Amino acid sequence: MNFEVKHCPCGAEIIWASTKANKAMPVNAEVAEGGNVLLSERPHREPLAEVLEVTALDAHPGRLRLSHFATCRFAEQFRKTATVRRRKPAREGSS
Ligand SMILES: [Zn+2]
């Protein structure tokens, strides 16, 4: 899988994805032990980021990443831009 890697202003390599609710979400480019974000490729748009339940993590060994929100010192800035179009909180992960 080839995701487009960008550089965050903090210097980290990140992948811009979006959630099912169409919220932009920067994800660390490196897969990480303890990661809980699954990226899926989508044609002609940014990857889909799904934050998995703890119980679902084992199904995707070596493929999970961490939200860059967790580690970035510019996280506040991201959150502001990501919540411009405020709507009711979307329920995610339940099916
Ligand atoms: Zn950053």
Question: What's the SSE blueprint?
Answer:
Elements: E1 6-7, E2 13-18, E3 24-31, E4 37-42, E5 45-51, E6 64-67, H1 75-82
Antiparallel strand pairs: 1-2, 2-3, 3-6, 4-5, 4-6
Bound molecules: zinc ion.
Zinc ion binds at residues 8, 10, 12, 68, 72, 74.
Average pLDDT works out at: 86
Name the shape in a single word.
Answer: globular
Main sheet specs: 6 strands, antiparallel
Number of DSSP-assigned strands? 6
Helical proportion, percent range? under 10%
**What is the CA-CA span between the terminal residues?**
26 Å
Task: Write up this protein.
The protein is mainly beta and 95 residues long. It has one domain (6-82). 8% of the residues lie in helices and 35% in strands. The chain has one helix spanning 75-82, and strands spanning 6-7, 13-18, 24-31, 37-42, 45-51, 64-67. A six-stranded antiparallel beta sheet has the order 1-2-3-6-4-5, with no helix packed on it. A hairpin with a 2-residue loop joins strand 4 (37-42) and strand 5 (45-51). The chain is globular, with a radius of gyration of 13 Å. It starts with 5 loop residues before the first strand and ends in a 13-residue tail after the last helix. The model has no long low-confidence stretch (mean pLDDT 86). Bound molecules: zinc ion. Residues 8, 10, 12, 68, 72, 74 line the site of zinc ion.
Entry keywords:
95 residues; 6-stranded antiparallel β-sheet; 1 helix; 6 strands; binds zinc ion
Short description:
The protein contains one helix and six strands. It has 95 residues and is mainly beta. Strands 1-2-3-6-4-5 form a six-stranded antiparallel beta sheet, with no helix packed on it.
